[in-house]
Amino acid sequence: MKHHYIDRYSDLDSPLHRLDPRVKILLAFFGILIMVSEPPGRLPPFAFYGGMLLVLLVASRLPPVFLLKRFLILSPFILMASVFYPVSLYLTKETQAIAFQREALEVALSIFLKAALSLLLLIWMISVERFHVLLMGLRKLKMPKLVGTISILMYSYLFVFWDEALKTTRARESRTPGKLTRAKLKTYSNQMAMILLHSWERSKTLHHAMLARGFHGEFYSLQKQGLKKRDVVFLVVFLLIFLNVRLFSGSLLNVAISLYHFTISLFTITIPQFDLTTPLLTL
Amino acid sequence: MAARIKIEDLSFSYSPDKEVLKRLWLEVNPGEKMGLIGPMGAGKSTLLLHLNGLLSGSGKVFIGDTGVTKRTLPEIRRKVGLVFQNPDDQLFNPTVEEEIAFGPLNFGLSPDDVAAKCDYAIEAMRLRGLEKSPTHHLSMGERKRVALATVLALDPEVIAFDEPFANLDPSMMTQLLDIINGLTATLLIVSQSMLPLISCCDRVAIINQGTIVAVGPVKEILRDEELMRNNGLDLGFYKKIFRDFFKENSI
Predict the structure, then answer these.
(1) Residue numbers in A near B52 (CB within 8 A)
(2) What is the pLDDT of residue A265?
């Protein structure tokens, strides 16, 4: 069976792949928080956020086509979100002056940019780390055990469901040539029911197999996790840059200093022996 | 280490109107390899699930001196390894290495012990080179070996196999038989393919309608045509095929 893993590029080797999963999670979480807290209609900072994100994506060596595909799959939801809010604003306002139309457009654009960049940041996060390792990172960040277990089981269930869907589709297609017609709807509904039943049965057996090997609700990893100095430096520098742009509008000097720090932190995670203190102290 | 399996007066039903296991008694000696045969729906797989407490009916199940109860489940699951009929029902981790480490990690072994157990299981199951492979990219024979490796990594005292010879080509069957013959744990092997049992089992038990109807040396039981026929396990079909095949060859 062919599976489309959401974390299929997590095995690439890049400096960002080597970061601790907690850093990736915190970076995505606070990055999104800072971006969405931008006032509606304020557009210039997004050029900077976008630039930073581009650096992250390029440094992670993720294939652009893959990113574009992922983005396009989810983009209809972003478009819907960005269109409806200004439209509702427009309809509820008494005045429909041209100035307001421009304001609505800016609000729509800022919602679109917030959603799009947040989505790209999330795509980056799940592409540079294995899904179950991310969940283990969340557990280390004190996420309740039950939430982690449910998430990882749900993720596994998707593949069971997909397997069963493919199997039953093959079985149906081998006996029902041609296109979907109204007469065949009953066959499709029967197939849906069978997919659910089969995947439920198989999930039960898988759960038995897990219990038989001592599963007690916790997932472990062979990968050794531990925050290193470079992890912390990278996270702090990245978030400081974002905060700087958010709070001080990213003045040219601030942005230049931030970019310098960011480049230094990238060097630090790429070359562990790189001495960080000297260049930082000079600024 | 190998432990004795002792099942006393075990009954179990999935629904109130149909008992799957009926007052079943069975004893397997430490280190013994016992086959369990019977017609479809006789209760073979259900019996295996009782060995490490995945199902619990009325009656008693002992692994060594430890009774299978809710309280002893962690110990029992460490002692009893189950190899499921379909490896796809057993493998759920992204890579072979992670799949094999799942059990040892869950039992709280130290990283060094986990690594050593994985190494042993990979070597024993001839999986060297496949450690980083995704499990769904492997062939059926390889997936079966990984499923067995996941159990071997726990170093169990008892291993229960559910249809290990199903869907294997002759060379893979030979490989699996070699591996099974090399195991020192107590083995209970459920199989519809009876011929491989001759080459790997000391004794065989027949289960029919939830009860053990006969236990004895493999060849003795399989040669008892009446017993086999009465329990829906007639080997006359194979006998005829082999006779005709060899007759043709001699011509």
Answers:
(1) 212
(2) 63
